[in-house]
Design brief:
This protein has one domain: Orthogonal Bundle (ABC transporter involved in vitamin B12 uptake, BtuC). It has helices at 3-6, 10-35, 40-52, 55-80, 88-103, 115-142, 146-166, 207-224, 226-236, 238-243, 248-275, 286-297, 301-325, 329-352. By secondary structure, the chain is mainly alpha-helical.
Length: 355
């Protein structure tokens, strides 16, 4: 038997190596859990219960994966144009503000034909898109690096959320006493994203379906459309793209606008799907985790979906593990970081592996 016959087919190897890397990261994480003195069996049981131990847990995990997927798709789309959008957190925040503000407007809740949901969602997409497009405008007009601008705009957006929920002139709920929480009023039920099951026992929302459809659309557009080809051309060689007649500046702004719109949609999914009222810190780092999902996907929409599911179930299981087994929050974040490093290292190794 020759050495060549022992080689595993490339497709199998590309799927197996990242899986082994994730398992190795989990193994290290388990050792760290043991080192803290926590019961390993109790921790694993709590993780399993929180991630997929019931229809409710699975639904919550899928809703979280939806947010990661939307941000990740936006990251891949902008990366195709040679841009690095790290502003998912801010775009989620702007989408949440817009969705809440529109949903609470008088008369919106009474609109027919699903418009009570559609209009706040579109407002969130527009707000997130404008926030991302602003970074694109700064890049083409002032030469500002989009990594810096999208990151700084995220901090501004987070403070805008704080301002909105602290001011009664903006979105803070009416103050009946000194104990009234600094948050918005609950959005009307008719503006909330519908549940696929119709029951809060399994509260998976229509946002999951929207994310899957957008992932399929993005995959087709990026691989089979003129727009996708133009994006790739701009990303590979903007000078040559401009000489070929492609409007590079417009494509740059549009790519970041679309990425921001997906981030805004993620914000709407969080506010109208699960949280139902705007609070300080409502995005809870989902935008930054979605950025990691996009990075690990390495330009593939299928990679975004896989990463989003992994992070969605990991976060759900980690929260329950912390509450039920006493595993520190920091350790859960460390395990997540180990998985990221393991997958990135596996990808680097496969890229450098001789063919």
């Amino acid at each position: 038997m020759t050495a060549r016959s022992l080689k595993m087919p490339g497709a199998h190897m590309s799927a197996l190596i990242p899986l082994l890397a994730v398992l190795a990261a989990f193994a290290v994480g388990l050792l760290l859990i043991v080192a803290t003195g926590a019961s390993l069996g109790q921790a694993l049981s709590a993780f399993s219960q929180g991630a997929f131990g019931s229809s409710y847990a699975i639904s919550v995990s899928l809703n979280r994966a939806t947010v990661y997927a939307l941000v990740g798709i936006g990251f891949v789309l902008s990366a195709r144009a040679g841009l690095t959008n790290v502003g998912g957190e801010g775009q989620i925040a702007m989408g949440g503000i817009a969705a809440t503000a529109v949903a609470l407007q008088p008369g919106i809740a009474d609109l027919p034909l699903g418009l009570a949901v559609i209009i706040p969602v579109l407002a969130a997409c527009l707000a997130g898109g404008l926030w991302g497009g602003l970074a694109g405008f700064l890049k083409v007009r002032a030469g500002t690096n989009e990594v810096i601008s999208t990151l700084l705009l995220s901090f501004i957006a987070i403070w805008l959320v704080y301002w909105c929920v602290q001011s009664v002139d903006l979105l803070r709920q009416p103050m009946s006493s000194g104990t009234t929480l600094p948050e918005s009023s609950t959005v009307p039920e008719s503006t909330m994203l519908p549940l696929l099951t119709g029951s809060y026992a399994s509260p998976v929302t229509v946002g999951v379906v929207i994310a899957v459809v957008l992932a399929l659309v993005a995959a087709v557009v990026l691989s089979r459309s003129t727009f996708g080809f133009d994006l790739r051309f701009v990303g590979l060689n903007p000078v040559a793209a401009a000489r070929a007649g492609i409007p590079v500046e417009r494509m740059t702004i549009l790519a970041l606008f679309l990425a921001g719109a997906l981030g805004g949609l993620a914000g709407a999914a969080m506010l109208l799907g699960e949280q139902h009222s705007l609070k300080t810190g409502f995005s809870s780092g989902y935008g930054f985790d979605g950025l990691v999902v996009g990075l690990l996907a390495r330009g593939r929409i299928s990679g975004v979906i896989a990463g989003a599911l992994l992070f969605g179930f990991l976060r759900s299981g980690g929260i329950t593990m912390e509450m039920a087994a006493g595993v520190p929050t920091a350790l859960v974040q460390v395990v997540q970081g180990l998985i990221v490093v393991a997958i990135a290292g596996a990808a680097y190794w496969m890229d450098r592996r001789p063919g």
